[in-house]
Structure formats: structure tokens, C-alpha cells
TrEMBL record:
Keywords: Signal. Residues 40-289 form the Fe/B12 periplasmic-binding domain. Transmembrane segments: none annotated. The lineage of its organism: Bacteria, Pseudomonadati, Pseudomonadota, Betaproteobacteria, Rhodocyclales. SUPFAM superfamilies: Helical backbone' metal receptor (SSF53807). This is Cobalamin-binding protein. PANTHER family: MOLYBDATE-BINDING PROTEIN MOLA (PTHR30535:SF34), VITAMIN B12-BINDING PROTEIN (PTHR30535). Residues 1-20 form the signal peptide.
Length: 297
């Protein structure tokens, strides 16, 4: 009898454990239920692709959208359109067991159509730096890579805390963050970039605007008279239009030379690299403070 029990116990120990059900509510309030960790994931935003890789789930990503260019391995994956115009047929052809979308970028109708096809969809949105760490842990849970994801999240939190300790209490620098030139666009105070601005001891002069990303006029910038202007442009090169602010020599940012550039992939994507952009921003605002202190009184 004991031998039979021992044999049965050994058999149970050797048998594969059933995957635990995963139940999570996404940023839009939809509840997602997966029978186990996702094995075939389609990402509907470049920053989501990057977060998936950072969370240890890169080998489970089978499809991405245009501009998913980091890490290098993401460039070789099949593309399913852009984040604003998803090719639903291309997504379905990849037979995903999970699609991860973006609240601010993916049209809700596209996400609803994917759900109607029976494809599980989880939608995320980072509104502050803490949300980036949470996103890492969330996708790690969805993909079954919790250990890697948790380590990445903790590393992000530690680095954020170090930047806050170094720069958060420095004298405030009023600044304008410029997304684009034509039309002239900026971000409001609830955008994740504004959280990076606060981390560096900066103040977004357009924090009170309603939309996350808003179109404004040159007159509004001149009236706000920021001490620094930070722009991101489209790529690695400093945009020519940043220098156009020198046409208004009475503008404090122009008069002091506080016209700074940060590559958009470092500051505009909700990924661990956002802290690379934040660190550059903190250094720029320190330069603005130094110029203020050096100015003749």
C-alpha cells in the first residue's frame, strides 16, 4: 500500500503543473482572462514592444506595428500596420493569444473588432513614471516572465528615486516642452513627460491645458515666457525649428540660450529608456539654473 502511494506521489510530482489562470483589468476597465501565460503576443505600439522585451517576453512577440525599432530584434518581426491604423487581418493571421494595445494611440474600434474575433486584448496607458514600472510587471504577468519583469521594474524605480533625490528639490525652472512645429504642439500636466519634468525640478508652463497633447499658438508661448524650451522632433537630429525661437530675442529661453533637444524615443516612449531622456532633461535644466546664477544682477 505504501509503495503504491509513494509511486502515485512520484507520478504527481513529475506531471506538469496546470497553468494558473490569469485575470487582470486593463486601463479601459476591460477584464482579461487568460488560461495561462500568453505565448503569441502582438504589440500595437512601439513602446509596448519595447516594454515586452524589457519584461523578458521578447521571444513571445510575434507581431508589431511600424516604428517598433527597439531593441534590434524587434525590427525583424512581422508588422501589422501602424498604431493608428492596425491591419486587423494581419493580426488575425499571426494567431495571437494576446494583443497588447495603447489607450491613447489605438482606435477603440480596432480593439473592439479584435475582441469580436475572439482575440484577447489588454490595453495599457502610462500617465506617470511609476506606471512604467507597473507596466513592466503587468506584461510580465501576462507573459509568465514575472521574475525578469519584476527585476526590471525595481531597477527602474531605484533609478527614478535616485534622480528625484538629486534633482527634485532644485530651484524650479519654468519650461515649455515642444512636441512639434507645424502645428505647434505641447503636452499638459497629466502627460508622463510632465512627470519627468517634475522629477527634474521643472514646471510645465502649459500644465493646465485640457488635452494630453494640445495645439497652441506662438503667442501663448511668448506670453508664458518659459525659461527653457525642450523639443524632441522626429529622430536623432536636433530639429531646425528649435532654433526659430531665437527670432524672439525677448523670450527668456532664447535670450539665455536654453533651447534644448532630447531624442523622442528617449522621452516620448513609455519605456525604461524614458529615464535616459529624463536624465538628459535634468542635465539641461541644471544648465538653465547655472546660466541664471551666472547672469549679471
Amino acid at each position: 500500500m505504501i509503495t503504491r502511494i509513494t509511486a502515485l506521489a512520484a507520478l504527481l510530482l513529475c506531471a506538469p503543473l496546470a497553468a494558473a489562470e490569469i485575470r487582470l483589468t486593463d486601463a479601459t476597465g476591460h477584464e482579461l482572462v487568460l488560461p495561462g501565460p500568453a505565448q503569441r503576443i502582438v504589440s500595437l505600439a512601439p513602446h509596448i514592444t519595447e516594454v515586452l522585451f524589457a519584461a523578458g517576453a521578447g521571444d513571445k512577440v510575434v507581431g508589431v506595428v511600424a516604428y517598433s525599432d527597439y531593441p534590434e530584434a524587434a525590427r525583424r518581426l512581422p508588422q501589422v500596420g501602424s498604431y493608428t491604423k492596425v491591419d486587423l487581418e494581419a493580426v488575425a493571421a499571426l494567431r495571437p493569444d494576446l494583443v497588447v494595445g495603447w489607450v491613447s494611440g489605438n482606435p477603440p474600434a480596432n480593439l473592439d473588432k479584435l475582441r469580436a474575433l475572439g482575440i484577447p486584448v489588454f490595453v495599457s496607458e502610462a500617465r506617470n513614471l511609476a506606471d512604467v514600472a507597473t507596466s513592466l510587471e503587468t506584461v510580465g504577468r501576462l507573459a509568465g516572465t514575472e521574475a525578469v519583469a519584476h527585476a526590471a521594474a525595481e531597477s527602474f524605480r531605484a533609478r527614478r528615486a535616485a534622480l528625484a533625490a538629486r534633482y527634485g528639490a532644485r530651484p524650479t525652472v519654468r519650461m515649455f516642452y515642444q512636441i512639434w512645429d507645424r502645428p505647434l504642439m505641447t503636452i499638459n500636466g497629466t502627460h508622463v513627460i510632465s512627470d519627468a519634468i517634475r522629477l527634474c525640478g521643472g514646471e510645465n508652463v502649459f500644465a493646465g491645458l485640457g488635452p494630453l497633447a494640445a495645439t497652441i499658438g506662438v503667442e501663448a508661448v511668448l506670453a508664458a515666457d518659459p525659461e527653457a524650451i525642450v523639443a524632441s522632433g522626429m529622430g536623432e537630429e536636433r530639429p531646425e525649428w528649435l532654433e526659430q525661437w531665437r527670432n524672439w530675442p525677448n523670450l527668456t529661453a532664447a535670450a539665455t540660450g536654453n533651447l534644448f533637444f532630447i531624442p523622442p524615443q528617449l522621452i516620448q516612449r513609455h519605456t525604461p529608456r524614458l529615464l535616459d531622456g529624463a536624465e538628459q532633461l535634468c542635465v539641461h535644466l541644471e544648465q538653465a539654473r547655472a546660466r541664471r546664477e551666472a547672469a549679471p544682477r
